[in-house]
Amino acid sequence: MVTLGRMSPWWLLTLLTLVPFTLSTNAGVKLKLTQKGLEYARLIGMTKLQQKLKAIKVPDLSGTEKVAPIGKVKYSLTGMQITNLGLPKSQLGMVPGTGLSLSIGNAFISLHGNWKVRYLHFIKDHGSFDLSVTGLTIATSIALKSDETGRPAVNSVSCASSVGSASIKFHGGASWLYNLFSAYIDKALRAALQKQICPLVSDAISDMNPHLKTLNVLAHVDKYAEIEYSMVASPAVSKAFVDFSLKGEFYNIGQHKEPPFSAPVFGLPPQINNMLYIGVSAFTANSAAFVYNNAGAFNLFITDDMIPPSSPIRLNTRTFGAFIPQIAKQYPAMMMKLLVKTTKQPNISFQLNNVTLQATGTVTAYAILPNTTLAPLFILNMEASVSAHIYVTGLKLAGSVTLNRMDMALGASYVGPFQVKSLDNIFLMVLKVAVLPKINAHLQQGYPLPTIGKMNLVNTQLQVLKDYMLIGTDVQFRG
């Protein structure tokens, strides 16, 4: 089962800019942006670029020229404002091994302004005009890089633009004004527009960078852990995909200690139905196990108040005394406490449609003496296996676990020998009603995925494959 999540307008374009700090580490998390995702990024980008180009400031034009049949004419065009601008045809493509290319064709700009002329030394005339510029084309290349903090950054590395043709409608004035425009003003006006287009395109691309800086390169999880999502390899651009390699490693907060294992190489399948694919490896999950084990998060005291009141099995010497008589004799009518702890890092494995966690630990039983000190009764060595159900919720991966099996053996006894198997039902109950609910409550809080700004994930599916989980999703932006 997969729960649809909620994730920012610049997410897809952010992914295109992630670049590594470290080139020798394999990825724990991989992202694959498809052509469908790039197309959605284009739609958003065109809206932003259109707003930027509407800021074009056309300078006033003036001069003196000879115009038939009038002779010398002094003219000025002032107060030109853009009334409409359209980018009806555009394409954002992948350039294998390089980055992105943006091309825009058949763009148009409409302007309104005022004209004024003086001729024959004393005759003045004025009015307004509407100008239509068509056949505007823009071509730019976008570089993908990283800033000094490991966050993404983009910039335009080349840009070319051309203005096709311009037509004008004068309101008022004589017909010879059109001769003036076609002979002298047309070329100057198109040159003034063309001069501004590429700088504004470059600015629009650079304006993305503040949004890109919101990428959660270091994502806080809880009081124990954080996840690093910095890049470990340059983006790999092909004809159909842009692939990104993120570190995807859990760390204890403030203590970035590497685990005694490394991330193996893995790759994502060439699926294209969704905008984005996220692969989370077993390395990432096991780095979490390493961190939580180091922090002692897997150590848990179990007391009688954690057992449902309706249960006939209680954590006291009377219940355990029925199976180990020496306990009731040495510690009559006393409450007990259990300490469950791992003795080594749990191991998490991903197989097709199956996530399994193997844990090795101990269970130490104590009697609570009248002065509240603890008297050890016995220590059991424990091997447990649980299956995990993983799903996407919001911007996080969450889950729950169920018990597959539990094997116990006597490690030490302070109350004489006894048959461990006689306690199986007690400890199965304790595990199911006290330990697993604690684990599931934590897992349901979730672990953040790599995100940027305000983002929604839609049409999300999660598959468990060999050695990694694959999340296929579309993206919607808010704000």
Mean pLDDT: 89
Number of helices: 8
Query: What's the number of extended β-strand segments?
Result: 23
Taken as a percent bin, the fraction of beta residues is over 45%
Can you give the helix content as a percent range?
10-25%
Q: Helix/strand/pairing class, anyone?
A: alpha+beta
The rounded distance between the terminal residues' Cα atoms is 29 Å
Low-confidence stretches: 1-11, 17-24
In this structure, how is the largest beta sheet organized?
7 strands, antiparallel
Radius of gyration: 35 Å
Task: Specify the overall morphology.
Answer: rod-shaped
Could you walk me through the main structural features you see in this protein, from its secondary elements to its overall organization?
The chain is built from 8 helices and 23 strands. The chain has helices at 11-15, 35-53, 176-206, 209-212, 282-294, 317-321, 325-330, 424-443, and strands at 29-34, 61-67, 71-86, 89-95, 99-119, 123-146, 152-162, 165-171, 218-220, 225-228, 231-237, 241-246, 249-252, 276-281, 300-303, 336-342, 347-351, 354-368, 374-393, 396-413, 447-448, 455-465, 468-477. A hairpin with a 5-residue loop joins strand 18 and strand 19 (374-393).
